Amino acid sequence: MLTASSATPKAQHERQRKRIRRTPRPDNWHGVNKGLIEAKLAFKNLQYDQAESLLRGVLEFAPNEAKAWAWLGKILALKQCHDESAQCIERAKTILTRKLVASMSGNKPPVSKSLARILWQQGDYEAARAMLSILLLKQPDDAELQHWQASWNNEVTA
Fold first, then answer.
1. What is the pTM of this model?
2. CB neighbour list of residue 125: distance below 8 Å, 6 or more residues apart
3. Measured between alpha carbons, how far is 147 from 134 in angstroms, rounded to an integer?
4. What DSSP designation does 45 have?
5. How far is residue 5 from each of residues 2, 8, 17, 145, measured CA to CA in Å?
6. Which residue from 17, 32, 52, 92 has the highest number of Cβ atoms inside 10 Å of its Cβ?
7. Which of 15, 89, 81, 5 is nearest to 49 (CA)?
8. pLDDT at 56
9. What is the pLDDT of residue 158?
10. Phi/psi at 138 (nearest 5 deg)?
11. pLDDT tens digits, residue range 85-127?
């Protein structure tokens, strides 16, 4: 039998705040965004082991962070860990697709910069270019998309 909660909305909110405060976090935890920024910096400095460690830390607390899975996949590919790399990239694609499908109405295919980039990195050039075309229709002045278009077209002719 279902019963209505006798707690006021204010009391429910306070209980939720206390639960959030009790969430265990390591002493060095600064959040997903900072973890991603630090991992990107380590990657740029060719410190792949450190970047991998930072990304794994992010994913421990935010397992649905598609960007972290994609970067981890790229790092693992550079470290010649191809099977694990493919699993990470596939997980990133799955997360992005699930999020986009959930947010869209109708039968439109999911479209995002992140998914286009992942498709390109995986070698699915046709799907990546198709998605890029849709993105450019929606955002024709986006400099990053224009750069991708030029770059991806050059890779075909080069």
1. 0.51
2. 119, 152, 156
3. 15
4. T
5. 9, 8, 18, 50
6. 92
7. 81
8. 92
9. 42
10. -80, -35
11. 999 999 998 888 777 766 665 556 667 888 888 888 877 787 7
